Amino acid sequence: MKKHYFYSFVFLSMFLMSATMFSQNLLSNSKYQTIVEDYLKQNKNEFNLLENDFNDIIIDKEVFSKSTKLTHLYLNQRYQGIEIFNATSSLAIKDNSVFYYANNFVANVASKINSTSTQLSAEEAIFQVASKLNLGRVTGLENLEKEGFKYLFSKGGISKNDIPVKLVFFLSEDNNLKLSWDLSIHTLDGQDWWSVRVDALSGEILDKTNWMIKCKFGEDHTSHRHYTTNDLENKTSTFKLFNEESFMVDGSQYNVFALPVESPNHGDRSIVSEPADPVASPYGWHDVNGFPGADFTITRGNNVLAREDVNGNDGTGYSSDGTSALNFDFPLNLNQEPIGYQDASLTNLFYINNMMHDIWYHYGFDEVSGNFQQKNYSNEGAENDQVLADGQDGSALNNANFGTPPDGTNPYMQMFLWSASYDPEPLTINTGALAGSYLAAYPAEGAGNNITGPSTTPVTADLVLVNDGSTAPTEACSALVNWGQVSGKIAVIKRGNCSFVEKIQFAQNAGAVGVIMVNHNNPDNDPNYTEYVNMAGESTPAFTIPSIFINNANGEPIIAALQNGDVINATIVNTSIYERDGSFDNGIVAHEYGHGISNRLTGGANNSGCLTNDEQMGEGWSDWFALMVTMTSDDVAEDLRGIATYADGQTASGIGIRPVQYTTNMSVNNYTYGATNDDTVIGTIGGEPVGWNEIVHNVGFVWGTVLWDLTWAYIDKYGFDSDLYNGTGGNNKVMQIVIDGLKLQPCSPGFVQGRDAILAADMALTGGEDQCLIWEVFANRGLGVNASQGFPTIMTDQVEDFTMPDENDPSLANCTTLSVGEFNQSNFKIYPNPTDNNINIKVNKSFGNVKVTLFDINGRKVLSQSGELNNIMTLNVNNVQTGIYVLNIEGNNISMNHKVIIK
């Protein structure tokens, strides 16, 4: 295994400097000039570079990391003073030498340049983009600033922000560098923040990407939602948030779902007093000027402005006011329209944004690294970029998004409401042997469809089986002959040979107060009880009675009991019709904020386009951020953690919005690196197989799975610490190493490069104490030594591998994860390794009776076998899951461990 951390690839992504970043730090002005130049000259062949390729580079950003003591330099490649778009290399210096280098320079630049003279002006480029992206008519466009090849234009009637434009070279798919205009436009509706490259000769749009990351939480889930009848889980463990008292005592208090409570499904609200961290927010959460005393009494401060946006215009909406006492204790009743608890919602949104700011500040998402603050108290990094968080945003449903521009420009968070879900158990039988709650579907919704489902007003009555006097009397395809019995009762009808409209009409005409439709065309084996609801059809005039649809397995016993003469009393009611507020799902808010962290740290804070390649892992990091801040001391590695369960209408134990829950249990979550290839089927939607190309967010899910395994490997080794700020547990250590890995990895990273950045971060932090642990986790999920990510903008060339580094690799010298018993290597041969069938233990001398045990990386025994070890002993592992294991051999004459890989 190479011990160096070099990466070289060509990528198509996006880069745009903030207008406040016009002054650049040329390499010649840096004290690291000689170190950088010497390193590039000495290693140019490693990256297939010519000296002319790096004789015109600038330092875009210089960041010192307190945790690793590394100085991160983000180097931009230029040609004749014009930057090459996203040709940004990451270089880290420690002790005046290059510790880490991630190469993104374009090779043989001079031969690829198409022109150095423009045919299209910067202003004309804006008009081209407005026209081709249908952004509206440009009006009143003015050039506000110009410096070199950079311009700043006014909003022009099409953008929420002034429009920065810069001349760059863009690397096209034919491997040529095309002179282009690079610009960004934040659309007036706030839904898109386009970063675009326009050919400076032809006006053609060469590349565009959207800084507004739309997480698509709510799409594609209603057709295969999983319900459980488990009670809500209330975890009462509480994080120790920090040990010191705030520098600024402001008397603030907030009634919120305080971390680690994830949502209303996971616990209750509580009052938190003066929660601002004294290091990250020394003047409290309502300061913006760095002087004692709150500058705002509303949900606004240095880190975030939380406001409502019910009308969806992305404007300056209402913010909750805690008055001069900063008392944000507002009532909350979730059984009402969300606008009725807007103050409580905005308070929670304000709280979680501030918590994410303060927590991750301690791990290196600080001012110099490009975090989100209106005022930077350290005077490092760019200011005026606190998060603008819109709650109850009316422009969409079932989603959330986050837009991350370069350092010095405000990011936008939009939190939407989630569609009202019907009660999955609206039917309750009140009497008899069948008493209990039952799953049921509601009528379909659509134009002209007036069939009604249950309301919040309960309908309670005895059940009656209908009779229309035909050969199929219970199908109600004609007027009911037992109308006297049906009147005032809930009619039970079998699905059959006429429309639902007719059936319900005949029941209502007979005086029924409700209808239970029993499916009999898909008997007993229908787990998706909602599929037949969409056949409900239309009705004229509108119905006045509620109807529900139950499956055959539940319906036939009811019919049989009625035919037996049993009296059955039942209630039909909808207890869940209100939309849910995403701002109460702390996991979603943390997830969105996490996009800002990963985007600002990858490639440097001045570059917002380093996570747009196909193999990028942004969704995985964001899920992981959410999981980390909602962990409790009661959690265990094999717990099942779903994402967005509350917002998606599930219980706390629901599957969430990913293919499976996050867990180290490979029997539940067995996804490995190979699953990221496009042609791999990972699940179903509506009964049809779905590949990664159709659920692109699940590429990140695999990365999140690896990070979650890594988290528990660290906790198993170092324990859990509830102090999120200054703790020393495994959870704290993994939070640090992931943040440092983000800073070290190259722009447009793939999984292998993300892995190597984490390994490099461990080297910088500990000298390599946890290299073995990290390798074991990554290899277990297919990111072993020989894994290949291919080209990070292609989703069909990943190759997984489960191989660990050689035990004698010098980078593993400081590992403290596994203890290997002393033995003479020449006496043993354990083969094949990796294996998928048998493990053979061959010895050249007798060791007598031994016990051979296979443990997984968490120390759990998988299987064991006893016998005489005097030649060859074979262990059958055919039924053991893929992964990294420890083979332990114990006897009177031997005690040893050996790592084995099962593929």
Could you explain the architecture of this structure?
17% of the residues lie in helices and 23% in strands. With 903 residues, the chain is an alpha+beta fold. Among the domains are: 27-111, Nuclear Transport Factor 2, Chain: A; 122-210, Nuclear Transport Factor 2, Chain: A, CATH 3.10.450.40; 247-418, Elastase, domain 1; 427-572, Glucose Oxidase, domain 1; 828-902, Immunoglobulin-like (Sandwich), CATH 2.60.40. Strands 1, 2, 3, 4, 5, 6, 7, 8, 9, 10 and 11 form an 11-stranded mixed sheet that branches. Strands 21-20-26-22-23-24-25 form a 7-stranded mixed sheet, sandwiched between helices. Strand 22, helix 4 and strand 23 (490-494) form a beta-alpha-beta unit. Helix 8 packs across helix 9. The protein is globular. One of its GO terms (cellular component) is extracellular space. It holds the Pfam family Por_Secre_tail.
